[in-house]
Amino acid sequence: MSDHLIGGIEPPYYTVVFTSVRTGDDEEAYAETARRMEELVRDVPGFLGHESARTPGGIGITVGYFRDEEAIAAWRADAEHQGAMRRGRADWYERYSVHVGRVERSYRFDHR
C-alpha cells in the first residue's frame, strides 16, 4: 500500500480508479515512469492525493483523488502523462480499466 493515504478530504470530490494487470516487462523503466508520474500529478491544481497497491502477480489498483472534473481533465491532457499512457499500452500492461466517480460520502477508521 502506498504511503499517500487520504484522510480529511470533504466530499464531494472525484476518484479515478486505475486497475491494471502488468506484463512484468522492463520493471526498471516502469518504476522510473511511475515515480515521475507521482511527481508530475502533484502539480495539477485540484489533485488531492492517491493510494496504490499491487500484488506480487502484477495486479494493481491506484486510486487518484481530485477536487473536480477539470483537475482530472488537466491530468489526462498532460503531454508527459499521455506519453506514459502510450508506453503503458505498448509495453507494461496486459490490460487495464479506468473508472471515474464522484464521492458523495466518505469515512475512515484508524486503529491506534
UniProtKB/TrEMBL annotation:
Keyword Oxidoreductase in record: yes
A Pfam family hit: ABM
Gene3D superfamilies the UniProt entry points to: 3.30.70.100
Record key words, sorted: Monooxygenase, Oxidoreductase
MF-aspect GO terms: monooxygenase activity
Enzyme's top EC category: oxidoreductase
Its EC number(s): 1.14.-.-
Lineage: superkingdom: Bacteria
PROSITE patterns: ABM
Residue ranges of domain ABM in the record: 13-100
PANTHER family for this protein: ABM DOMAIN-CONTAINING PROTEIN, BLL5343 PROTEIN
Name of the protein this chain belongs to: Antibiotic biosynthesis monooxygenase
